[in-house]
Amino acid sequence: MKRKLMALMLAGIMVIQSAGTSWAAEFTDGVNVEYGDSSENVNEEAFSDEQTEAENFEDDSPEKDLTEEAEVPAMASGSTSDENLEVSFNNGTLTISGSGMITQTSVKNCGHSLSEIKKVIIKKGIMSIGNHVFYGCSSLSSIEIPNSVTSIGSSAFSGCISLNSIQIPNSVTSIEYSAFYGCSSLKSIEIPKGVTSIGYHVFDGCIDLSSIEIPNSVTSIEYYAFLGCSSLNNIKIPNSVTSIEGEAFSGCSSLSSIEIPNSVTSIGPSAFSGCSSLRNIEIPNSVTGIRLGVFSGCSSLNSIEIPNSVTSIEGSAFSGCSSLSSIEIPNSVTSIESSAFSGCSSLKSIKIPSSVTSISFDTFYGCSNLKSIEISNSVTSITYSAFNGCSSLADVYYTGSKAQWKKIYFEKPYYIHADYDGDVRLLKATIHYNSIISTDKKFDLSSKSLSILGNQNSISVDFEASTPGNVANEEKAITWKSSNPAIAEIDKNATGLIDSVDGNRASGWISLLAYDVGEVTITGTTQDGRTASIEINVEPKLQTQTTIINISEKKSVTLCSVELEKENKEYLERFMKNLKVQDTGSYLAGPYVTIDKTDYRISDDGKKAELICTFTPIGNGSESSKITCTSPNGQKITVSVGKNGSHTESLTATAAFGDKSKKKTLHWTKDGYNEKK
pLDDT averaged over the chain? Predict the structure, then answer.
């Protein structure tokens, strides 16, 4: 009976197994499932499928995306441990002890979410912070790292946006790529002395990082190391560094100066692009090439020195350096690539060295103030678009002959801008054959007298010819420009320049026509590209109705006045407030008056103003005071203030009375002339 019962049970089990296998086959239809060779595996798979089916019937909730990491429930405390580590979490503080390397798994499996971690304490004995360990710990603001740690892995603190400071012990010798990527609150950091390289993206996006100290153990600054560190304003690169890779400091918009040591032999593409506050930089003579876009967008860069070691200037190297007014390219440079100086809108003059053989497309695109350029006879080809947008280009100095110029191959660009005018700009310029730009010749402007509205004004000129004996022609070719022709400009028809006998130099004056009051800059440009400027401040003429004022009691009188041709109350207010009135001396016994008060009044039409002074007599009537009024530019008038009949006017005469060998001073009083030695 028992045997029959056992047989029935076995038969039943086989039926159930068969049914289960059939259901599993239907469930996995179209999916290649490998179960293995043994029947035991088959049975396990069938059991697993049955269990899954049961679970599905029990749970009616929507299916979850298993590719997403499940959120760990928030907990006030928790702990985990493995063979080498013990990790505990309590009220926002994560404590890690043990030995070896901290892993991302050990941090995540401690019963908390990453965003809950506010402080991390790493105990001594831990040797390494692994890759991505604290990645995305957005609330982490403090961490203690012991001197047993020797390495920080890649992206270890990436995205720790609340971390504002960190002290890395000197035991650390390796900081891997992106270690502090996006730590947007990090303000300062000191790199340990054992670190030899600042890796890729290490401080990329640390927008609050304002200072960093790099030890002299570092030999390379890798790609994107400080990319976008927009608050970094100062950094010192030690002389142990040999390479600065591409975009290492790109977008460091607050960086105003940086010193590159002679140890650096290569600066990568766009290394300093977008450093819009960088004003000047010196490239060491160990560098052989200025790479692609290396200083592009450095809009404040106004001076740079290129050493003789440099042989090439790559494309867009100085593109957008809108403050760069001059640059000297050494003869060591053999190639200048496309767009190298595009957008250098302050560049006025440049020399192409004799080592260069071609000028590529867009080289000077948009250099709107470029007035002159020197091209060597070594140049055999020029792409017309090289000078596209050079709206001020007037003179081209070519070191070769006219015949050599005609042999240059002028090439149409393969890409033409919508505003293309490169061939027009170049062909309309005056070509000076067998000529060079003279930068060492003198050209100075000065003003020896005040510029006063209504007066005949002039500017002094001192000028040397670029070509010996040609000063007469070159002085006529000087172009004059006023920053505001409505205030003043040069009278091109009235000059008093005197040429030297040898024809090398001219000096004298040029007439300045003043039309209104205000400040203006007068600039002269020679045909070889030299410029000289002077700032002129035109002011109204101080006037007085009399040089003698008689008073016998306290009285307010008009001391002087000014008059404009056009209404300008705002200017008159500033001018009158800046007038200075003082007693500059006295006649005879001493001062006659004190200056109690000064005031002014402006006419309703805004064209005229008067200075009013209140005087009080203090003398007995035999004295008089010399009252001087001085304008902001130093214009002066003097008025004598005294009692009726007390004024004396002195005249110097030779032998007016008595001994004719003596000089006598005549004094006019109410009693007539009196003589005084």
Answer: 81
